[in-house]
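User: Please run a holo structure prediction.
Assistant: Happy to. Please share the sequence and the ligand.
User: Here you go; the ligand is calcium ion.
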Amino acid sequence: MTTRRRNALDGARITLCVGMLVSGLAGGSAHAAEPNGKPVDGARIANADAEPGNWLSYGRTYSEQRYSPLARINDKNAGSLGLAWFADLDTNRAQEATPLIVDGVIYISTAWSLVKAYDARSGRLIWAYDPQVHRELGLNACCDVGNRGVAAWNHKIFVGAYDGRLIALDAATGTPVWSTLTVDTSKPYTITQAPRVIKGRVIIGNSGGEYGTRGYISAYDAETGKLAWRFFTVPGDPSKPFENEAMARAAKTWSGEWWKLGGGGPVWDAISFDPLLNLVYFGVGNGVQWSRAARSAGTGDNLYLSSIVALNADTGEYVWHYQATPGEEWDFDAVQQLVLADLKVGGKIRHVLMQANKNGFFYVLDRKSGALISAKPIVPVTWASGVDVKSGRPIENKDARYSETGKPVDVKPGPLGAHNWQPMAFSPDTGLVYIPAQQVPITYIPLPKLPVAPLGWNLNVALASIPAQDQGFLLAWDPVHQQEAWRVAYRGPWNGGVVTTRGNIVAQGDAAGNFNVYRADTGEKLWSMFAQSGIIAAPSTFEVGGEQYLAVLSGWGGSYALSGGKAAAMSGNLRNVSRLLVFKLGGTAVLPPLEPRVLVINPPPEPADATSIAHGEPLYDQYCSACHGEHAVGGGVVPDLRASNFLAMDFFYNIVLDGALKDAGMAAFKSALSRDDATAIRNFIIHRANQDGKNAPTAP
Ligand code: CA
């Protein structure tokens, strides 16, 4: 079998013999992830425990537990872990993917939706694919340009490209088989989610709610890319016929002219599947604008925002929903991982679905009916005092509704959530859920109703962080009794996803750049290695040639990092050293020395025009801060503008207005900003740079 490797940088094609390479590996383990010639299909994913050497789907199984039956690495020997091999990546930001392992090959996606295949044991690159996403679309990245992973099915690998294409690649060669545009490119849709393949169809949603899109989830035929079904999460223009009964019912919960800005409700992360019930579950994001007063005339639950929804897997028809945050206005997306498990609750086995929601509550639902079984806070929560189990509704603190009180309010959790997309894991052995939990409160400052901006976020609320209160920890949670079992504190929030195994271990990378292994039952730290860069991705584990490995991507980024260095420095490491890291017992590979991080702030003199600076600050907040950081303090992902040489040059206008650096990810803002506006932003940044000068916070 021959295959081609595509070089992502120069497009050169090199022929090499992958079949020989992979089949030359020694086998001999019952768990071996060697090629067996069988295509990945629903039976293999549903029976993943029969081949634990592989990791065939984003959460390993359709239940998304991220629990592996492998136990060669365990609580007795984890102390002798070491690096087996590593591979440098060619995109240096926001690595969020969970590696898939199919029959001896690791498949990952990276920032900007690049896909790569490696020999799982040797680390040799087999092929690389670059979908050539236009970098100026980085403008629509609320939360960076990461990609959470690929899906495998019938000798194909699927990636949701950042620009909205769903692409099928030949698993052996990386050559595109088909590509389907899943979005209206006139709207600011993006994709960062890992696709799942269910019953021969690739399931994918999209992001972009903060900018003004209408959310939906779609199913495409895995062989042809043809659309099979689509379910919108928000009703459209009520003067036109609704797509289905679920939309007609939802429209009764909205007011005003929500459809003009799309309503939001993106399906940007969780998807799981129960083959017995034939239900697909997914989470829905929050609405646009954030302020309910601006979005829906201040009233209504606004279905199906911030909800968990179950659909018939064959038809995409609505079956049930549970809305975690009715009438949402704090950015409480309900898209966090949905874990299916069978739990003994009150002496009875319940088939449940679990979610550690951004809003701070841990939900246990009956996955057949959607009925709430229990909900308790996993961190301090101030927007609600609890959840009424009978009605399923939160008991709100009225002060938290800034759009009604008209007053600024500090709220826990804030928009980054008690738990975000970083995957949690559930161990049937310990009965515990391991949650990358955090406390990141924020001050919501209500604004008068603003006109809709053509570019950037449309929230209709201003935000101020409270970095001194930021915390991050690995939380072991008992979902039956809804109580904490143990926790491990980190320096700050925005730590990595989690995996757990039958070996009684939990593995998690952290924002300070360490990769850690703990005892699953007690939280005792067994081993840790400095990986040089913040880790936000989740590990997976696999076995090949009789050896068990742990694999994880390093590479700092995502929304907490973009929101600014002042907060992100809390987490301890602002470096982007993007790599695929693979660990094994007795591994001896060594990372190259780390270059020092230097930030030189040497700005032009303080601008004389105080009015212009004052005009520039809110413009900076609206158009620049989402990527370049609050108060113009960078978070280590994109350039720190205080240190930019362009502040002293008129080329600044070519960049900001005309898109001179669009190929590097900086879009043109001339449709939103005048030259005077750009001058005001420039003056504000120069002012901030002069304020900080040599006292600027430097990253560890
Ligand atoms: Ca959101």
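The pocket of calcium ion is lined by residues 209-210, 285-286, 331, 333 (CB under 6 Å).
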